[in-house]
Specification:
The chain is mainly alpha-helical. The longest helix is centred in the N-terminal third of the chain and has 17 residues. The termini are far apart. A 5-stranded parallel beta sheet has the order 2-3-4-1-5, sandwiched between helices. The protein has 20 helices and 5 strands. It has 4 domains: 152 residues, P-loop containing nucleotide triphosphate hydrolases (Rossmann fold), CATH 3.40.50; 64 residues, Orthogonal Bundle (Helicase, Ruva Protein, domain 3); 90 residues, Up-down Bundle (Zinc Finger, Delta Prime, domain 3); 73 residues, Orthogonal Bundle (post-AAA+ oligomerization domain-like), CATH 1.10.3710. Helix 5 links the parallel strand 2 and strand 3.
Amino acid sequence: MERLFEPPEAPRGRTSVPPEEGPLAVRMRPASLDGFVGQGHILAPGSALRAAIEEGSPHSMVLYGPPGSGKTTLARIVAARAHAAFEEASAVEAGKAEVAAVLERASHRRSTSGEPTIFFLDEIHRFNKAQQDTLLPAVEEGLVTLIGATTENPYFEVNSALLSRTQIYELHPLSSEEVLTLLHRALERGECQAAEVPDDVLRFIAGRAGGDARAALTALELACRTAAPARVTLEHAEDAMQRRALLYDKDADQHYDYISAWIKATRASDPDASLYYLTVMLEGGEDPRFIARRMVVLASEDVGNADPRALEMAVAAAHAVEHVGLPECRYNLAQAAIYLSLAPKSDAAKRALGAATAHVREHGAQMPPEYLRSAAYPGAKKLGRGQGYDSPHAHEGHLSAQPVMPQGLEDQRFYEPDAAEDELARRLESLRDRRRRL
């Protein structure tokens, strides 16, 4: 009978390696929830997921979280507790044929021994719609309990039909202390061949891992192997950690999270936070043109006429990105980010546009007065278009007594300057007062 860690054959699409011969991250996988570290928000005593696992009656689910947060480990614990066969596949390598074979074996087990099947599908977001659809009947009928794992937001990448048949659990990056717990546990088990691993080295690895347990354990193993049989130094750890790339995926929801953080930090007039999020995006491989476009938007949306030069600065940065490119355009973006952060802020233009839009959508578009309408086509004058127009250039201060709003809307106001636009506010009030006296 197929059991966890004891499959009679290698799962399709994966190479079966005994845990005791695998890398440290595999050797350290706990066999039960008692040894599982992190994710207390979904595995706290009394939680629905913990109860389902402990009762051995799991439901289909999608585990969504960053690398090294425990998705695969949790799936294996689910299967072990449920005394279920564990079928594992990667959506990168598996196709319809492999899925069909898994479902056939699951059907055979159910009809012969009654043994349930846990189907763990890693990187489920890599399955296209047709491939995901092949799983629907089996999940709906309970032929398999599906556990999908993904680093991508499943609401963007997984079919709504499949999502409706599963529970979504978001796993968080581990804290530095949780990663440190795993590192200490590895040393207590004698998994390091070096003479000693000082606490400052462990804390360095835990802090640099970015919440990724797999990366931390891999770095510890590499540092121990490099230093053995001597003492592990900080230099060994630094060398090992350099092999891990920055945790940022420009094609996933981190793309939206970090640009959102940059916008809000810049809006809050914090140049240090603005530069920090800008750097994370650039170091993670974000397209600088995307960042520049958001700068142009922010210049009008959040700075506006409190500092009209902000738009000039943002547009100049966008042009610089196109003409210079990486890596030098980083300086242009940094300069613009600092300027936009420190510029006075006003969303009066955004609010005015919103008010005008709401009015038009509620009341419809009213025709402008006849004297404002175009007379630039044959027959326009016969229709009265443009007749009697009084040009403001003919009057002192460029004001005309003619209303320029549609009839009935002469007193409608959309734009109200805020405190950061005091000069504009004074000019506007003066113009309105003079217009009332005409």
